[in-house]
Specification:
Blueprint lengths: L1 E3 L5 E3 L6 E3 L13 E4 L2 E7 L8 H18 L7 E8 L5 H11 L8 E6 L9 E8 L1
Helix pairs in contact: 1-2
């Protein structure tokens, strides 16, 4: 079905249902899905990894492992990621986070767009939370 978006441009709109993306043992801290797939897009909820350790590098690795698992459950890989949002409890952790993030991107032909910034307080006193959007 074609419809016009807010800019007056005709776009294809599908009536495909949403599909929940989940992994065994995924913990949520509220009424939301770990991931949702619809119309060729995949949105992952912000991932934290308190169980991975207290330091920023361990928590970053833990978040990215969960993201890899959720992407796989959605039928894609990190090569399909278009946008990443990184929330840091302390912006001074940026360089250490970026080092781990760079390792994670090894082999990705086109790195996703990204935003990274300090957030006032993250859930459960996490040091980092990572949000991902991907395409099928």
């Amino acid at each position: 079905m074609l419809s016009r978006n807010c800019f007056g441009i005709e776009v294809f709109r599908s009536s495909m249902p949403k599909e929940r993306i989940d992994i065994d043992g995924a913990k949520t801290y509220g009424p939301y899905s770990p991931g949702v797939k619809s119309n060729g897009m995949i949105w992952l909820a912000g991932q934290i990894a308190l169980e991975a350790g207290e330091d920023i590098k361990s928590q970053t690795r833990g978040c990215l492992r969960k993201i890899d698992d959720l992407l796989s459950a959605g039928g894609v890989t990190k090569n399909n990621v278009c946008f990443v949002q990184v929330l840091l409890a302390d912006i001074n952790d940026f360089d250490s986070m970026n080092e781990v993030y760079t390792e994670w991107l090894n082999g990705v032909k086109i790195p996703p767009a990204r935003a990274a910034f300090e957030a006032g307080n993250l859930p459960k006193a996490a040091r980092i939370e990572i949000v991902v959007q991907a395409t099928e």
